[in-house]
Design brief:
428 residues, alpha/beta, BirA Bifunctional Protein, domain 2, Rossmann fold, 8-stranded mixed β-sheet, 5-stranded mixed β-sheet, 16 helices, 15 strands, 38% helix, 19% strand, elongated, RNA-binding
Length: 428
RNA sequence: GUGGCUAUGGUGUAAUGGCAGCACGAAAGAUUGUGGUUCUUUUAGUACGGGUUCGAAUCCCGUUAGCCACCCCA
């Protein structure tokens, strides 16, 4: 492996069934997002650095050390989509055109983390944002939507975890109480939590250290609703949302210790995890960010959204999906027939048949092997004698039956014998 | 970003510091016009750069990459 180029650390190539699955997940997601009334937007990979510093939060790891910055300019590769969508929304003064919008986006995000399974430096998000309503029905729609997408790609093994951080006031009040309380118990907390306590106190809540957990439990007092810390209105919204999820038979786990790392989250937060994934087990997450638009210089408009990690979905699914197979592999019995073979393949493709042929000058036997390897339903064999009589041979690769068909009747034969739409074609 | 583990043909794996082997895959053939089974042949490797040693896949150092945990997050 000398003098070879290799991929950049933390980036991955998708091929074979992974590439197929990657495309399938994206296509199915788009279909469902559109059916929920979300409009696709395609945004650039490059943004101003300040957008994320302001939007995601100065103290977050993402902003502090994970952004890929273009040397000498205030430009970064986007680390996440929400702040970007809000930038797009404000830049185009959409708040003046309509009071409510629903968007979705798909594409690569970049964070300079140390790679491990399920954690890449270039990874792909499927995200949705609904801007302009504080209705708990919208929270429910967002949750329902993210679960529907996972259903559609066949991901059944998952957990939905929910919490509410409350409005900005509630959140600040809660952080104040938490900080005051934990400062007193500081000596029992781990080293990391000492740092968290100053930088991002909410993070202490999801520390995995056993002693820290004990301290937090004694502070929280309650297990289900964080009612002690939410104002009546936020608590009402939270209760209503949960009631609605019950009505919709959506299963969830309430976890008062669920916090999201990005500064902009308020009120409802949720996370979808998979048991298959190890430490990086969140395949999707989201929540409300009622303060973000204002903090980015816009009016005070509420919003809610989520993002799914495509690579993590693929990991959770395993690579069991079937790749599309070929309808017909064209085989020629001699080099002199290559041109006829090439022309027939072209005719087949124009008629919508998935067809291919050998380009390496293989023997008849070699071509037949290739037909099998490509999982062709039929081999269309072009022989000297048959062609002289104006016909070709169709060999069914499953039952080995062979039929002579007139050269002019090839497309008719396909029409009768190939099951269109069953496989080999996009099912979306 | 921190700590730990790992790195042998395309893939999966062997080799007390002493000839790098096996399986699968791939290519060609056994059958002068036909795939799957079988058989034959061919194919290709010690991640990279140093060091110790008569001799290194094996020991040491560095680099790179992957994995695990932390951290963080989707």
């Amino acid at each position: 492996m000398k003098n070879m180029y290799s991929s950049i650390r933390g980036t991955s190539d998708f091929d074979g069934s992974d590439a197929f699955l990657f495309g399938k997940v994206n296509l199915k997601s788009k279909f469902i997002l559109k059916s929920f009334g979300y409009e696709e937007i395609i945004l650039p990979l490059l943004e101003e650095e300040g957008l994320f510093a302001k939007g995601v939060g100065q103290g977050t790891d993402i902003v502090e050390r994970q952004m890929f910055k273009i040397e000498g300019k205030d430009i970064v590769l986007r680390p996440e989509g929400t702040a970007q969508v809000v930038r797009y929304y404000l830049q185009n003064s959409l708040n003046k055109k309509s009071d409510f919008y629903k968007f979705f986006y798909t594409g690569a995000m970049f964070r300079g983390e140390r790679p491990q399974k399920g954690r890449l430096r270039q990874f792909h998000h499927i995200g949705a944002e609904a801007i302009g309503s504080n209705s708990f029905y919208l929270d429910a729609e967002i949750i329902d939507l993210s679960l529907k997408i996972l259903d559609s790609v066949g991901l059944k093994e998952r957990k939905l975890i929910i919490n509410s951080l409350g409005c900005k006031k509630d959140k600040d009040k809660f952080i104040g109480l938490l900080k005051a309380d934990l400062d007193k118990r500081k000596k029992y907390l781990c080293e990391d939590c000492h740092i968290r306590l100053n930088k991002n106190p909410l993070r202490v809540l999801d520390c995995k250290n056993e002693e820290c957990r004990k301290q937090i439990k004694s502070f929280m007092k309650i297990d289900s609703y964080p009612q002690d810390y939410l104002c009546p209105r936020c608590f009402d919204d939270y209760k209503n949302l949960i009631g609605l999820l019950d009505d919709l038979s959506i299963k969830y786990i309430l976890d008062p210790c669920l916090v999201r790392g990005l500064d902009y989250y308020t009120n409802t937060v949720f996370e979808i995890t998979s048991l298959e994934l190890g430490a990086q087990n969140a395949i999707g997450a989201g929540g409300r960010y009622n303060g973000l638009i204002k903090s980015l210089g816009g009016p005070d408009i509420p919003a809610v959204g989520f993002a799914l990690g495509v690579e993590r979905i693929l990991l959770a699914l395993g690579s069991t999906s079937l790749e599309p197979a070929l309808d017909i592999f064209v085989v020629v019995s001699g080099r002199s027939l290559e041109k006829v073979g090439f022309q027939i393949v072209r005719e087949l493709r124009e008629a919508g048949v998935n067809a291919d042929l050998d380009f390496c000058g293989k023997s008849l036997k070699g071509q037949m092997r290739l037909a099998q390897k490509k999982k062709a339903s039929f081999a269309l064999i072009i022989g000297e004698q048959e062609l002289a009589q104006g016909s070709v041979l169709f060999k069914n690769m499953v039952n080995s039956q062979q039929e002579k068909v007139a050269r002019s009747g090839i497309l008719d034969y396909c029409e009768k014998n190939i099951i269109f739409g069953e496989r080999g074609r996009c099912q979306c």
